[in-house]
Write a structure and sequence with these properties.
The protein has a domain of 216 residues. The chain has ten helices and five strands. The strands form two sheets. A three-stranded antiparallel sheet has the order 2-5-4, with no helix packed on it. The radius of gyration is 24 Å and the shape is globular. The protein is mostly helical. Helix content is 50%, strand content 4%. The longest helix has 24 residues.
Length: 309
């Protein structure tokens, strides 16, 4: 059977309202990822209008394949190869890059741009029900990476909106199983919020939110400091921002600004004797040494870890 005929048949079986919600969720997941990358790849946010344009083109195509499989494969390989060269050039650079981190961890912030472009490329392939869920899985991967790279109110809002869109998709799919044919009449295929199950989705999202907050409050916590990706990945947001008190694995002498007081616990010490009994004779003026910053480049002191090839 001709692959083009198969793709058109698969696309005609996809619910048009589910098609709309899928693109909405992908737009939100891409926004989450690009917002989280602002501290590490600031120029990536400039591609957001282009990504929105790609999503719109994919949506108005109504399930039709735009690129042939061979073309998509070539472009995918090209994006991956160019992305690897770009990541290598960024990680091998000394200034402004988390050089104090081991290689696998140092690569994490630079996976996002490659993933975003691959998601956009996947939009122009087939759009059957199987491909719909593949795209949503890639969108969840984008948001999962974004959760590691950022915190803050803006991302919390974007993340909550994205979760709501996922609940909405599941509710719509439960009602239709995605087996509604696309209409050739544009007015008939226009999504209706009431018919798409908006209000039940809001209710389920609120219920899940209350459950998640309750689970968060009863979960035991350790004495370690809260997650801060800008410290974990050795990067500071903005070139002219202020600093934060506490432990860090680099010292940037090029930055000026106000210092923000941080009340997070810097470290905890437990002292025992040879019999593993608590020892209370530790001097109160005892001093401790953190990481040694032995590498200096362009005003930045950092702790370099020799990476194994």
């Amino acid at each position: 059977m001709d692959s083009t005929i198969f793709d058109e048949k698969s696309a005609s079986e996809l619910d048009p309202q589910l098609h709309f919600l899928g693109h909405l969720a992908l737009a939100l997941s891409t926004t989450c990822l690009l917002e989280s990358e602002m501290a590490f790849v600031p120029g990536l946010i400039m591609f957001l209008p282009l990504f929105y344009a790609f999503l719109w083109i994919s949506y108005v195509s109504k399930g039709r394949r735009i690129l042939a499989t061979s073309v998509s494969n070539v472009l995918g390989i090209l994006i991956s190869v160019l992305g690897c060269f770009w990541v290598f050039s960024r990680v091998s650079r000394d200034a402004g890059i988390p050089q104090s981190l081991p290689m696998p961890t140092a690569l994490v912030p630079f996976v996002g741009p490659i993933l975003a472009f691959l998601v956009m490329l996947r939009l122009f392939g087939p759009k059957g029900r199987r491909d719909f869920w593949i795209l949503q899985g890639m969108g969840m991967l984008q948001v999962s990476l974004a959760c590691v790279l950022t915190t803050g109110t803006i991302f919390a809002f974007l993340f909550s909106t994205y979760l709501f869109s996922l609940v909405w998709i599941l509710k719509r799919y439960q009602a239709t199983r995605g087996e509604v044919e696309l209409s050739t009449n544009a007015t008939e295929s226009r999504p209706s919020l009431r018919s798409m199950g908006l209000f039940p989705s809001i209710g389920w999202t609120l219920l899940l939110g209350v459950f998640s907050v309750g689970l968060f409050l009863i979960t035991p916590r350790t004495d370690s400091s809260s997650w801060n990706p800008l410290i974990r990945f050795g990067q500071a947001r903005g070139a002219g921002g202020g600093g934060i008190t506490g432990f860090a694995e680099q010292m940037n002498l090029n930055k000026t600004g106000e210092i923000e007081i941080n009340d997070d616990i810097a470290m905890t010490v437990s002292v025992t004797d040879v019999d593993d009994n608590p020892f209370n004779g530790l001097p109160m003026d005892q001093r401790w040494r953190g990481a040694v910053l032995e590498h200096y480049d362009n005003g930045v002191w950092s702790r370099r870890i020799s990476r194994k090839p």
